[in-house]
Amino acid sequence: MSSDMKSPVNDCIEEAAFVGKLLIDTRTTAAALSISERTLFGLTEPRGKLPCVRLPGRTMYRPADVTAWLDEQQRNPIPPKVGKPIVRKEKKRGGRRSAQKRTEG
User: Helix 26-33 and helix 63-75: axis angle, to 10°?
Assistant: First the structure.
């Protein structure tokens, strides 16, 4: 995506800045980025590199910081996490009651 193209994310962030909001809340920021609030928290400092402002009981974001972070992500995207595959254990059949019935019979 070239920098001269408008995106819905930039529109939302610019609208927040235009209205004069110095800070936008987590819900608005997550909606603008089309991600969940939980994912946003994972991208936020100290876990991620997205700068935020912490207020008592709230995490807020500066529109300019979000836009700058997006530009940085476009230049240097976050590498995908590579790890061990998840191996699920097989469930044991029966339970405590099944074991009791087998010993009684």
Answer: 30
To 10 degrees, what angle do helices 63-75 and 8-18 make? 160
Take residue 33 and report the two structure tokens written for it.
Answer: 């980025």
User: 49-64: b or e for each residue (b if 16 or more CB lie within 10 Å)?
Assistant: ebebeeeeeebbbbbe
Is residue 53 within 8 A of residue 62, CB to CB? The reply is yes
Strands annotated E in 9-103: 24-25, 53-55, 58-61
pLDDT one-digit tens code per residue, 2-35:
455 566 666 666 665 545 678 888 999 998 888 9
pTM of the predicted protein model: 0.57
